[in-house]
Amino acid sequence: MRKVEVTPYNDQWPLMFKEEAEKLRTILGQEVLEIHHIGSTSIQGLEAKPVIDIMPVVNNISEVDSCNRSMESIGYEAKGEYGIAGRRYFQKGGDNRTHHIHVFELGSPHIDRHLAFRDYLRAHQDVAKEYGTLKRNLMDQHPYDMESYINGKAEFVIKTERSALAWYNMQSFH
Prior knowledge:
Blueprint: H1 13-28, E1 32-38, E2 52-58, H2 68-73, E3 76-78, E4 87-92, E5 99-105, H3 109-123, H4 125-141, H5 146-170
Parallel strand pairs: 2-5
Antiparallel strand pairs: 1-2, 3-4, 4-5
């Protein structure tokens, strides 16, 4: 049973991302175009489950399947699309997860969705603080019920994602 754990921001998270991104760059080789740190651990100051979410962007998603054995050799479990068409998902750490890898092909709408959410929270500390408080409260209410924790965040995430995408599409930096 996975315990819901939300911890204060950890300055090691960006370093943990960089270390893992290098391993992924080696495994994915020429297929990889960019590797992004996404999710709550990518937002300085935000409380988060201590799991590093990483989003490699590749030329051809079907080529990623040939990397499953190499990913397993560094501790990942290959989960295929895992509920999102066009994604390849890997997790590391079993019930004590340390990393989630979300691989998308260049052009996938999920790429902008993830980057917009991250960048919006980075730029809007008040929204990030509200999200952190929500996560802490959900952890307290559902310490051993990951599904209720995730469902409890859903409305906030959907509403924020909508605002984030509108904001992101107006920015000139992407």
